[in-house]
Amino acid sequence: LLLAVLLWAPWWALHGAPLTELSGDQDFQLFLQRNLEFTRKIRGDAAALQRLVCDTLQLCKEDELLLVRQDLDIAQAPLEQCHRRTFQAETCFSQIRAGLRVYHGSLATIRALLPGHAGLVDTLQLDMANLSSNIQQQMEDLGLATVTYPTEHQDPVPTFSSQFHHQVGGFFILANFQRFLETAYRALRHLTSL
Asked: Which segment of the chain is annotated as a signal peptide (predicted)?
């Protein structure tokens, strides 16, 4: 329940700071519409992987795995800049791109857990890279500051002490990623309404 409150409560504050300089821009609105659809597709693929983890590994309920999670070092990309009262597109976009980078690397864990579905993981990673690139391009088009992450210094893939910890880690990587995508989707949708 607390997790649900933490995930959904910040959204009441999203109606702050208007971005009048962006709201009427046709190209920006087209970017938002296309990438809302793209984010929806990525969310669907992440959910499909989560169902495969449930079906294949019998890991389905987050509350049953919370004790094990304490022993795991699972990255959770922050998106607090995407739901603050002082919402700014530049900082939100930067956090979305940074989070996509974190989860892109972490998905190697899922590929190892579900080798028969490596193609879905590869597609998901490609889509994530493309979404990040789309956001970077839009930020550049708008004259917003961008950060380009060097590909050779990717975040390390999480390591686990046992196969069970690897499985639970994969479950939480996907659960965190889906929450991240939900927040990113809501931020993009919020920008369409400004």
From this structure: 1-16
Domains in the chain (CATH in brackets) are 26-192 (1.20.1250.10)
DSSP 3-state of 193: coil
pTM of this structure: 0.81
**Spatial CB neighbours of 114, under 8 Å, sequence gap ≥ 6:** 49, 52, 53, 56, 121
List, for residues 19-41, the tens digit of each pLDDT value: 445 555 788 889 999 999 999 99
Radius of gyration of the CA atoms of the chain, in A: 17
The 3-class secondary structure across 154-188, one letter per residue, is CCCCCCCCCHHHHHHHHHHHHHHHHHHHHHHHHHH
Scan for tokens 């550049």, then name that residue.
140
Please, are residues 124 and 106 in contact by the beta-carbon 8 Å criterion?
Answer: no
